[in-house]
Amino acid sequence: MPVYEYICGKCGSCFSFLKLKQSDEPVCPKCGSHEVSKIMSACSLGGSSSGGGGAFGSAAGGSGGC
What we know:
The protein is mostly beta strands. The chain has a single domain (3-59), classed as Rubrerythrin, domain 2 (Single Sheet). It contains no helices and 3 strands. It has strands at residues 3-8, 14-18, 36-39. Strands 2-1-3 form a 3-stranded antiparallel beta sheet, with no helix packed on it. A hairpin with a 5-residue loop joins strand 1 (3-8) and strand 2 (14-18). The relative contact order is 0.28.
């Protein structure tokens, strides 16, 4: 069950959408528009909490494009 991030073309709101079925279509929760575009998001990487960053730098554990 993937979670995708979208941005609304009508109001500019950014939101996450859990796609349970292939036929599920995202709708903007702010204005109800279907004019939404999927955006790239950074994934959250698990691992050490030492704060060193390592090979992934600041991308580790960060939030997505919203």
